[in-house]
Amino acid sequence: MEGELIERLAALTVETGANVQPGQIVVVMAALEAAPLVRAIAERSYRRGARFVDPIYVDTAIKRIRIEHADQDTLEFVPSWWTERQLEFGEQHCARIMLHPTVQPGGLAGLDPARAGKDMMPALKENFQVINARTTNWTVVPYPTPAWAAAAHPELEPDAALERLWDEVAHVCRLDEPDPSAAWRERFAVLAGAAGRLTERRFDALHFEGPGTDLTVGLLPTSQFESGTATTVDGIVHGPNLPTEEVATAPDPLRVEGTVRSTRPLEVAGQTVRGLRVRFEGGRAVQIDADENVDVLRERCARDEGASRLGEVALVDREGRIGRLGTVFCSTLLDENAASHIAFGNAYATMVGEEDRERINESAIHVDFMIGADDVAVTGVTAAGERVPVLRGGDWQL
User: Fold this and answer.
1) pTM score > 0.85 for this model?
2) Would you report the helix, strand and coil content of the chain in percent, each value rounded to 5?
3) Rounded to whole angstroms, how far apart are CA atoms 176 and 32?
4) DSSP-assigned beta bridge partners for residue 255
């Protein structure tokens, strides 16, 4: 059964996620554990006409050894050929695929969170430059591993946990549909409708209210909500995240005020941050607290000038498949599509008009954390101060 799901996931990744084109170079970044899916993606890509498939493997154990034993002053070092290669992906208009998770959940447990936060690899700041240039068609898709299954379902025995996770990934990726790609085209259309209605309202800000949360996120004059697909400069339509259930935009990084509480744990540098609480003043996070592993996030948010400001605000309703399962996946790719969220760090240039491109947040990081729930109300605030219900009880009000 797992082999069949791998083949269906590979087909969805190549055809709908990355939408690989004949003659393209295809780059696949994955954990060692994801090799079966990498091979299936390679076969699908070559059959589709790819010129070359380049797998890049990440070994969580090697990353752990580095964090544990390397000189602290070297933990932020990135070899020049890594950054040059990332930029070359854009120059050659490659298709890029990342299999999630690359760093296995729990793989860095027990290490100093501050040291873990310094090592960004395999994430690179140049990735955002390539994304904003829209020169590559790219996607991120999940691949269940034993370590991830243990984190998501600690109540089950290892084999049962992995089987459960595969069942859930198949469901949220719509692999249980007769034609997963057609099912995603239908869902993309629904999300595009929600994004269009939000953009049309031209809200000045979004106000989140719930237990431990009273947060106002200012928007830019040309902030526009995007949904499940993106288009490259070459006209290639692709799905950057599969699964996806969000509509998102770039906020004004100087206008975020109030306090917010995370509603789900988040994975940062292979460590789980639980009970996150953040206070913003003048757009900047001035206080970051958590029940577990707060130092790994504090380290990330001190990375550069934009790391403690917001680069994204995303809304998720309760109709998506992920939230309905009730599983805390300990995976940002899935958990961020179960609940509304905000993100520290870099913004995406396509989410604003040309006149506001210079105002969006820039950073080497992009860390999403979930702040939405049925008991968190989202209200749109107009420039005139009118308050318009947007989400109530997880349902769209527009």
Assistant:
1) yes
2) 35, 25, 35
3) 26
4) none
